[in-house]
Batch of 2 targets.
Target 1
Amino acid sequence: MKLKYKCLILDHDDTAVKSTPEIHYPSFLASMKVLRPDAELTIEDFTNYCFNPGFMELCKDILKYSTEEQEYQYKIWREYTTSKIPDFYEGFIEILEEFRKLGGIITVVSHSEKDQIERHYSCKSSITPDLILGWELEESKRKPSTYPVKVIMDTFDLKESEVLVVDDLKPGMDMANNSNVTFACAGWSHQVKDIEQFMKEKADVYFSSVEDFRKYLFESF
């Protein structure tokens, strides 16, 4: 079988693994209990803010965290990420196994840290990504910057048409669009209708399920 794309550029949180309900939202609530005890934030609120204007903007502009408060929030988040490994979405790893078996390149571009992504894959899958670019990048080089896509394309000598970005949120879409590569939205994690509708309208391809992703890669030519 000839692959439709030579390389996958995968998001991690809420695309590969169930990060928001299992790690990010609970850790954020834990830090808010100390930093903003009178504030309330549902998981829908949290997801909406992370979508627009973004997580950093939520911390700095909406909750008005000082630098010290941001450092505390990060410390609590790290405690959660180092003590718990989120589950991969059912069927996701099997897709990557088949993709690699057919000669595909698997990369990850994420706002999570590289060591945690490696840990998740090593503990709960048979896959080791070929390249991971995460939060360790300086801020100007993280999504939605095109820098990660350029690094991946240069490293593996890829053409724009050989790359598929799979992400559940707008920064990944903007990165893909500005890099002139195809963007597929991982809609299987979407719980907020406004986000789902926006991404359906804007993405090149929208997957409502992991099975849709599999069919697109291996059955649609």
Target 2
Amino acid sequence: MDTSPLDFDKGKFDAVWRRVMKAGSYTPDAPPVPAVPGDAETLRAFMDDEYCDARVYAALSAKSRGSMRQTLQHIAADERYHYKKLKAKYYILTGKTYTPPGSCPYVRSVAETLRLRYTAERQGAEAYADAAAETYSAELAALYKSLGAEEAQHAEQIGSLLEEML
């Protein structure tokens, strides 16, 4: 069953909003209202991707040398940073922490894995752009746009690495 981002209990939202807006009525136990129902799920999906990406790039860098290794280590660090930024926003939004499921990246061929990562980074940039357009949270939209731009930059970097390799 698909739900629209606007399918939420308006009466419940209004009651929470009134409670939060009253001076002194905020309690630390009261969960923040998501900007759009579904933002938490979107953040979890992005965290899963970024966590896995960081591990794949770390594995790729271990199989590489020289400037390629440095570039892949830099991308891995970027992906870990993306994960941490998303994790912080998730905590702010939900009051809960989230840890992605463990993954064990398997890299058989550096060139083939880079080819797949090039496509994944381009798709990631598009996914962030879509998420930025779908949320009503200006703060999340700005984060998604920023991360999307970095994902597009990663695709360019990977394209350059492939040009050097082949």
